[in-house]
Amino acid sequence: MPDDSLIHDPKGGMPRLVEIMRRLRDPDTGCPWDIEQDFTTIAPYTIEEAYEVADAIERKNWQELRGELGDLLLQAVFHAQIADDKGLFDFNDVVTDIADKMVARHPHVFGDESREKSAEQQTRDWETIKAAERAAKAQIGVLDGVAVGLPALLRAVKLQKRAARVGFDWPDASHVLDKITEEAAELREASEHLSHEKVEEEFGDLLFVMANLARHMKVCPEEALRAANAKFTRRFGRVEALLAERGKTPGQSDLAEMDALWDAAKAEERR
């Protein structure tokens, strides 16, 4: 019988969690579902858990954040155990790598550099260090190393930031606004005369330029869209409530009525 003392030790800390995952992945005695998973099948859960962390922070639900951070931590442990099973690396290697990286990227805290510099200067120094790290990995292209798996809007901003560092950028937001007008016209033309594939391409171009405008205006497009989603959800919920007061559901209403109630919901928020 295996020793379960660490598994059931509430003060077991990180070693306890690592051991739990090791046991879950044990090919003879583990959980069939956990055993069947690989990097690819777990990756979507990792992304989902990261968003749930962000959601808890957005709602300022700190107790829920505690649980969501645990769920996200489990994802790292899960991936590390899969890697360990394949003989690639283990969780201690993951911890060592990130600790070494943080020390190397903060010479003003852990080295001889002065801490007397602005956050802007620190950002420039950080990018210089990261550029050296990419060069060491033979990532010589300006856009090398921008993760493909990032949410598309965030990746667009990161790609544009990289290009901007070498001067490939509009000088100000007014030029981006002009480009948005141009891309919107191209999308309209494509929708009227061209294939669905071309429409999709032009739509992507418009979103890409919108992300660039967000960067110039110092707006995070992901956060802005998340806020817009929340606003839409809140206002539509109010529309449903107003319809309910009339003894109706949205399915029993029409666009004109719901649009009027939407305007009423907006007006309520402005009071």
Automatic annotation (TrEMBL):
EC number: 3.6.1.8
PANTHER family with a match to the protein in the record: NUCLEOSIDE TRIPHOSPHATE PYROPHOSPHOHYDROLASE
Pfam families for the chain: MazG (PF03819)
Similarity-based family: Belongs to the nucleoside triphosphate pyrophosphohydrolase family.
Residues making up the signal peptide according to the UniProt record: none
Protein name: Nucleoside triphosphate pyrophosphohydrolase
Gene Ontology MF, one: ATP diphosphatase activity
Domain NTP pyrophosphohydrolase MazG-like: 37-110, 176-235
UniProt xrefs under InterPro entries: MazG-like_dom (IPR004518), NTP-PPase_MazG-like_C (IPR048011), NTP-PPase_MazG-like_N (IPR048015), NTP_PyrPHydrolase_MazG (IPR011551)
Keywords of the record: Hydrolase
Domain of life: Bacteria
GO terms of biological process kind: dATP catabolic process; dGTP catabolic process; dTTP catabolic process; dUTP catabolic process; response to stress; TTP catabolic process; UTP catabolic process
Gene name for this UniProt entry: mazG
Reaction(s) catalysed by this chain's protein: ATP + H2O = AMP + diphosphate + H(+)
